[in-house]
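Exam revision sheet. Question 4 asks you to relate a sequence to its structure. Input first:
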Amino acid sequence: MTNFSNRVESVAISGIREVFEAAGGDAINLGLGQPDFPTPDHARQAAIDAIESGETDGYTSNAGIPDLREAIGDKHARDNDLAVGPDEVIATAGGSEALHLAIEAHVGRDEEVVIPDPGFVSYAALTHLAGGEPKPIELREDLTMSPAAVEEAITDDTAAFVVNSPANPTGAVQSKEDMEEFARIADEHDVLCISDEVYEHIVFDGEHHSPMKFAETDNVVVVNACSKAYSMTGWRLGWVTASERRTDRMLRIHQYVQACTSAPAQYAAAAALSGPQDPVREMVEAFEQRRDVLLDGLADASLDTPTPEGAFYAMPDVPDGWVDECLDRGVVVVPGEAFGEGGAGYARISYATGIEELKDAIEIMDDAASAVR
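Answer key, structure tokens:
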């Protein structure tokens, strides 16, 4: 009988998905990491125009259409003060594939990848699938990742470490000083820093800073996507930015796994990145308002919550049984342990939902907290 590979047996279905399946169909879903705003009209129209003109009928360049790679380069210049050429970018099938390429191309068998704990579920899983070993590190009390802890975790077997700011599941934003330190660590220890910047535009307090800006070597790879900033999760359009020698290796994987990302999505993304940015700002303002409403509600329920400075997640410290009580009452939240052992005792709440629905959920969460105390 044919067996399965050790790599696939080392990963399981995400705990987030298990929560979704346990909830009823009419539940208020505060577990979904997806903006509830429409994709900007100009991005949709660009895809329609490209389809109607026949430009999307065939394969594109493996790395992506020139207009998109140029738009990504312009975005890096505008938002990150970085000079990025077209050969330093690969358009991918969402940020998920971008992460896969970065890890698969740089992590050898049994090599370690230092990851935040709690952290995005893909970091450990993709490390296992590459044959590596995830090395989780505990976060600070404010749920940011300590550069000192990262540096202490590095050994001769370390291939890479992952930085995620703003972060999923915590909503934490790393400081400029932290990012400078992460860049220094990558340079001095000659390890790769994989910077997951998918939520970079959704920052309420402070600013987003990319470690690539501060690195003196090419030991930083940036992963990004249109999914969150432009509410384009279904379009599956992301990218990876790195030096040419690194994109060359990642392209070798991409061309066999994906060939190229969806052509209509590439045209839509080019328009989203290069067109009016007002929809992004309006969405961020709405998320900040929702965050404040949620934090007030969690405080009223006596649930201690580090203030999220970005993304659209909050991670309160919750009593035993609270997540199940919420699910039983029709509100989907995700247990913190779905994001690693360090998430035990927490829950992730997504406020990417309408504010009236959010207020209804807050009442239910308050009742759930009372029920388990």
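Marking note for examiners. The CA atoms of residues 175 and 218 lie 21 Å apart.
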